[in-house]
Amino acid sequence: MSDDAASPAPFSDGELRETLERLGNLVLDMNDYVQEQTKAVNHATTAANEARRAAKATQDQTDPDQYAEYAVEVIDKRLEERMKDIRQTASDLLKASSYTREVLSKVDEDRIDTQRQLWEREQKLKQWKSRWPLLGLGALALAIVMTLTLPAFLGTTNVSCELMVGYAWTSTTTGTHICVRYNE
Q: Chain-centre distance of CA 109, in angstroms?
């Protein structure tokens, strides 16, 4: 047997061209179809990715722990100024309290000093009161002594004798100078 008898009859050139053309068109159609399918798959993948991101964002927004952290951050930011004001007010009150304590301490010291000075003055006044009778008696004794001795003392000089009304400076028969008062 020969190889020619067992093999099918060869295609004619026209048939072969037509078959190849059909195969080429089929490949082109398949290529277009594959490209459309690729675009559809890419579009579906993009949509799925966007849906996944949206689901993740939704999950993050509805996650109680994350929402709590966000709420704490917002509250912290809003309360931070208030806390700063409260701290400043507390500091000012502490300073005012310290100043008030110092002033009250100074007032208390001044009160004690004033009471001590008043007590000292009362003690001095009591001492003077106890000395008044002696001073009065001394003044009375001085007045009596001066009444008795002053004219005699004043009469020892010419100038002092002339100062006393009604007295005159004269000499005695023995030559002693004396201050005398003449009655008319």
A: 27
